[in-house]
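Ticket #4471: structure output looks truncated?

Reporter: J.K.
Steps to reproduce: submitted the chain below (315 residues) through the standard prediction queue, then opened the result file.
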Amino acid sequence: MIVLFIILGAFVGWYVLTFVIVMFQTAYMYHMEKKCCRRAEGLLRKEELSKKGRLIVSKEYKFTFFPNDTGKRSPLIIVCPGGGYKYLCIENEGWPTAMRLNELGLSACVLEYGTGRDCKDMSPMKELAAAIKHIGENEDLYNVDAKNYILIGYSAGGNLAGMFGTKEEGYLKYGLNKPLAVFLGYFWTSDPEYRKHHCLNPWVWLLDVHLFIRGNLIMFKKRRFTEWERNALALHKHIDNDYPRAYLFSGTQDIVVYHKLQCDLVVKAVAKNNVDHIYHVFPQMPHGVGVGDYTSASGWLCEALSFAGVEFKKR
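Returned output as attached by the reporter:
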């Protein structure tokens, strides 16, 4: 009986301790988001372009286009903010990333794909395809090379951008060229085999389960999924040896998309298929940092652009 109580006490103590750790990491994440995302600067850049009449907002194709100041034609770069397909982290990840690309002399398009009630049956992929086609048909207006386009995605936006790099559910399905590259930050993949995942922190594992159920529930608007629906957002299961070159990163302090349960699955898939890639697990980096200033990920965007062979202005 005493042994039983000791074992029970150890279990309870472990659950309490790991819960406290998760709460601390959550507080750290929100603190770093405010510090590192450059949210205010992104909004200022958007307002600056708007006042000059240079900001292009397309309600039909659901994007905001940030032209560069150099007038030089650049590759089409589309930013897909995260938000779990429930909402858009556009102020933290979308506009600041476009601002940073403008600083580097490049134009940027921030996709405002449908989320929550406006997200259904792979509609974000259809909206991304429509935006690329529209800009491709109007290259002179946007002053970009839409044939060599790059996709940047964070979290669920990383799932969207990553899935669009696949043939089955991405570019080939919509009759488009393969992306020049995909840059995926703390990216989510919906793994239907989540029950096989192992994690010392039970709360992180529960969050992993929650993300699978919520992501598929939002996308397909039902509680019972077909076999295809269970695998539709499983990025790691759609990658083949013709996948575009990929710059991938996550952080050791990310408990929302824990890299060992999510990102590492995709990395194993690109490595198995000999896809040209770079993968960083940045020390002490939490979820949602976007451009990542003041973190160990600072400068990741310049490294990714160099990896993709894109010329840019040095900061």
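Triage note (M.O.): checked the attachment and the full token line is present. The chain is about 45% helix and 15% strand.
Status: closed, working as intended.
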